[in-house]
Design brief:
Blueprint lengths: L1 H7 L2 E6 L1 H4 E2 L3 E2 L1 H16 L3 E6 L2 H8 L9 H25 L4 E6 L1 H5 L1 H16 L3 E6 L13 H11 L4 E6 L20 E2 L4 H9 L8 H13 L4 E6 L5 H6 L6 E3 L8 H9 L5 E4 L1 H10 L8 E5 L7 E5 L5 E6 L4 H7 L4 H8 L13 E3 L1
Parallel strand pairs: 1-4, 1-7, 4-6, 5-6, 7-9, 8-10, 11-13
Antiparallel strand pairs: 2-3, 9-10, 11-12, 13-14, 14-15
Helix pairs in contact: 3-5, 4-5, 8-10, 9-10
The protein binds glutamic acid (GLU).
């Protein structure tokens, strides 16, 4: 199973963590970038399509600007990202050029992924680059990203890119061997989990236990990224990028790292985008009947099943559907504003039309725009 996934995946997103390619003391680790580029080029020449998501801009920029500590202020962090990103890209450009491989810089924000038109546009551009045999080197556009439009960490960005390009596999290279049963620094008996068939509460708890590892997100964001792409039918491999030669060996079937299997069903791209890329702007609470109609019978959401609404949101915005206990069980794009939902909640369509005039849509969320989580 493991071997088959790793050896047969054709389109692969490889995330390279900050701690692999940069350090606070010495800035960018060009030796590491050279070695990883060689391994990635070797994998590509074996017939795989590769996209790289690389961190390291901010840490490299900190060194270049001569800052003493990790900046707290946003403009300074963004300045560090700007000087660091050009250096990071220069290092990849130089490294891959030696190997006769072309690369391209792509900088994304959450905005680019959350807007369907921009999402599709980015998808087409990346497909065109891959068609030319170019390896896209992707990072968050940290220089312009403020909180509302930030993805925030590159494990999540890599997961969103894997979905964007319909990848077969996400590889997260970091400075740990994978997911352990316990924190290996505290428990010498901790064992590496080589195959994770389901990302359940137990797995999430184990990830939390080892979340103090180096890097922005630690193990928790990596497992969350694996869960995110798993819903889209993409498997994730967490692998130690410090060990020379490991990446090509594992992709050829050798055992190392932790592989998280994808869920069986593959959501279509648009539904995955609604469920995992978009952020909910509000919440609609449904009664038991509506919860059952949506989740078991594939129905659209009608006003009559709505108990409560919290916003504000506008027509077209993503919202969460929760049951009476407050558990989110679905997400979808609404046809009307939160103010309107507040007015029509609990009402029958005939009463709405009588009191408020004929409405453009009968459903608050049409089932085509609804994803059961
Ligand atoms: N985009 C950040 C950088 O290049 C890294 C974010 C992360 O490591 O998750 O420095």
């Amino acid at each position: 199973m493991r071997d088959e996934i790793l050896t047969s995946s054709r389109r692969i997103v490889i995330k390279i963590g900050s701690s692999l390619v940069s350090s606070r003391d010495s800035g960018l680790r060009t030796d590491r970038i050279d070695r990883l580029s060689e391994e990635i080029a070797a994998v590509q020449s074996g017939g795989r399509e590769i996209l790289v998501v690389s961190s390291g801009a901010i840490v490299s920029g900190i060194k270049k600007l001569g800052l003493k500590a990790y900046p707290k202020s946003l403009p300074i962090k963004q300045a560090a990202a700007a000087v660091g990103q050009s250096r990071l890209m220069w290092a990849y450009e130089r490294s891959f050029e030696r190997l006769d491989v072309k690369v391209a810089q792509i900088l994304l924000t959450h905005h680019d992924l959350a807007d369907r038109r921009r999402f599709l546009n980015a998808r087409h551009t990346l497909a065109a680059l891959i068609g030319f045999g170019v390896i896209p080197i992707i990072n968050e556009n940290d220089t312009v990203a403020v909180d509302e439009i930030r993805v925030g960490d590159n494990d999540t960005l890599a997961a969103e890119v894997a979905h964007l390009v319909d990848a077969d596999l996400l590889v997260i290279l970091s400075d740990v061997d994978g997911l352990y049963t316990e924190d290996p620094r505290k428990h010498p008996s901790a064992a590496l989990m080589s195959l994770i068939t389901e990302i359940n509460e137990d797995i999430e708890k184990r990830a939390g236990l080892s979340s103090t590892f180096e890097g922005t997100g630690g193990m928790a964001t990596k497992v969350r990224a694996a869960k995110k792409v798993g819903e889209y039918g993409v498997a994730t491999l967490i692998l130690n990028g410090q060990q020379p030669g490991l990446l090509p060996k594992v992709l050829a079937g050798e055992a190392a790292g932790s592989l998280f299997l994808a869920k069986g069903r593959r959501l279509n791209s648009r539904k995955h985008w609604i469920a995992f890329t978009l952020r909910a702007r509000g919440k609609i609470t449904l009664d038991h009947g509506a919860v059952e109609a949506l989740s078991q019978r594939g129905k659209s959401l009608l006003p009559s099943g709505i108990l409560d609404v919290s916003g504000p949101f506008e027509a077209g915005d993503p919202v969460s559907c929760v049951d009476q206990e407050g558990r989110e069980f679905a997400k979808g794009l609404v046809n009307c504003s939160s103010e309107m939902v507040g007015r029509i909640k609990g009402m029958k369509t005939s009463d709405i039309n009588r009191q408020l005039g004929q409405q453009e849509y009968e459903e608050v969320i049409h089932r085509d725009n609804l994803v059961i989580l």
